[in-house]
Write a structure and sequence with these properties.
By secondary structure, this protein is an alpha+beta fold. It has two domains: about 80 residues, 2-Layer Sandwich (Translation Initiation Factor IF3), CATH 3.30.110; about 50 residues, no CATH class. The protein contains four helices and eight strands. The strands form three sheets. The protein has a four-stranded mixed beta sheet with strand order 1-2-4-3, sandwiched between helices. A two-stranded antiparallel sheet has the order 5-6. The chain has a two-stranded antiparallel sheet with strand order 7-8. Strand 7 and strand 8 form a beta hairpin. The longest helix has 15 residues. It is elongated, with a radius of gyration of 26 Å. InterPro entries: RNA-binding_CRM, RNA-binding_domain, YhbY-like_sf. One of its GO terms (molecular function) is RNA binding. This is YhbY family RNA-binding protein. Keywords: RNA-binding.
């Protein structure tokens, strides 16, 4: 469990003020699915609010302690039925397969030979976001969306 100084806790409380609850804990309590959702929320946001539906204060405090111990999070605030948790975000780099830059992606096109006895031809092509490769290996652009003649005459 992470220990926070009073100054850090105060800053996190101020930051969490505008947040909406990410996870809701119902009458089933802390199920593995709920714990997984809380962990995903902490990984992606770092600071989250959790709403607990239930009137038993001791049960809420026990849930709060359990979540903090199991997920390695820091307890920031417990007001009524809202729990505020903090854990530094994990730096996860998503590896994009074949993508380079904005809207461009590299695609390998393999075309079999016409006779079937020679090696297939392999070419690497950069595609824009609105292009796709057909089964035959040709590149097609997406068609522009059709607009209504009536709407364009009325000035939208």
């Amino acid at each position: 469990m992470i220990k926070l100084t009073p100054v850090e806790r105060s800053a996190l409380r101020a930051e969490a003020h505008g947040l909406k609850p990410v996870v809701m804990i119902g009458e089933a309590g802390l199920t593995p699915a709920v714990m997984k959702e809380i962990e995903l929320g902490l990984d992606s946001h770092g600071l989250i609010k959790v709403r607990v539906f239930g009137d038993d204060r001791e049960a809420r405090v026990a849930m709060y302690d359990t979540i903090c111990e199991q997920l390695g999070a820091a307890p920031v605030q417990h007001i009524g039925k809202l729990l505020v948790l903090y854990r530094p975000k994990k730096e996860v780099e998503k590896e994009r397969s074949g993508k380079t830059g904005k809207g461009m992606r590299e695609v390998t096109i393999v075309k079999p030979s016409a006779s079937g006895t020679k090696r297939p031809s392999v070419t690497k092509v950069m595609l824009k976001g609105n292009e796709r490769v057909t089964e035959g290996g040709t590149i097609k652009r997406a068609k522009p969306r059709q607009s209504s003649a009536k709407k364009s005459a009325l000035g939208k």
